[in-house]
Design a protein that fits this description.
Length: about 270
């Protein structure tokens, strides 16, 4: 059975794709990436002191969440949200493990609360004053599509807009040899159950057994811009959103489960 939602807000951030407006031109091959990768974003949602102190996961997640809501012209406090990360904050986790092994009495309470998988979602809901439910998702190699499936399902079932945020950062230390990831990558969508003046894309979708053809891939040139990041599976969808034309995609939400997407201009 196919369902329909509408994309109202889009955001993407990576060092070579710093913001959706620029990323869209690069993904269309209308512009070449800068030779100087951007530093991590500085989300305006946080006060300056918190902004400097926040870990990379929080910085990237809040940046794309804010930009997607702005583009959709939606009040972020009014929406349920789904946050997805393959690994959470492995940099903080590695630091805590190192401290526990060497000087366990010096474990930082701030690092501890930043190490939990839903830390970015917590910062978001507190920062925007949102009392709506949020969901934190991790599904190993299939995290982006699994989180998107959750957000799509909530949009259809609840008949209310949903914010979807997906992000991963570089892995460090011994954990990085088991759970590899490089660079920063964040992506966000505001999904609505029906068309509005802010609708940009009509998205028809269904979940079905995985086909032998395998998932959709971004172009080699665009894929190289986020290669190595654990959330890079988001790029085929954002490449399609940048093209603005009809497009069919398949994303793996589990080893045997495929998320089939049909994109059409709204």
């Amino acid at each position: 059975m196919r369902h329909r939602v509408y994309v109202e807000g889009i955001a993407l951030w990576a060092p070579l794709l710093p913001g959706w407006e620029l990323a869209r031109e690069i993904l269309r091959s209308e512009r070449t990436p800068t030779a100087n990768p951007a530093p991590r974003p500085a989300p305006t949602l946080l006060a300056p002191t918190e902004r400097r102190r926040a870990p990379d996961t929080v910085a990237i997640a809040l940046e794309v969440a804010t930009r997607a809501c702005e583009l959709a012209q939606r009040d972020p406090a009014s929406m349920c949200s789904v946050f997805a990360s393959t690994h959470g904050d492995l940099a903080v986790t590695d630091s805590m493990c190192d401290t526990l092994a060497k000087t366990p009495a010096l474990v930082s309470p701030i690092k501890f609360h930043n190490s939990v998988h839903n830390a970015a979602a917590g910062y978001w809901t507190i920062g925007v004053g949102c009392e709506q439910p949020y969901t934190a998702v991790s599904a190993w190699q299939h995290t982006f599509a699994a989180g998107l499936l959750e957000a799509l399902t909530q949009t259809v079932v609840q008949q209310d807009p949903v914010l979807y945020v997906a992000y991963d950062i570089a892995a460090r230390g011994p954990l990085g040899t088991m759970a590899t990831s490089t660079g920063l990558l964040g992506a966000a969508l505001v999904l609505a159950p029906g068309p509005t003046s802010a609708s940009m894309v009509q998205l028809d979708w269904c979940a079905r057994p995985a086909a032998a053809a395998g998932p959709s891939r971004a172009s080699a040139a665009n894929g190289a811009l986020v290669a190595g990041n654990a959330m890079s599976d988001c790029l085929p969808l954002f490449e399609a959103l940048a093209q603005c034309g009809p497009r069919d995609l398949s994303l793996l939400a589990a080893p045997q489960l495929e998320l089939q997407l049909e994109l059409r201009p709204a």
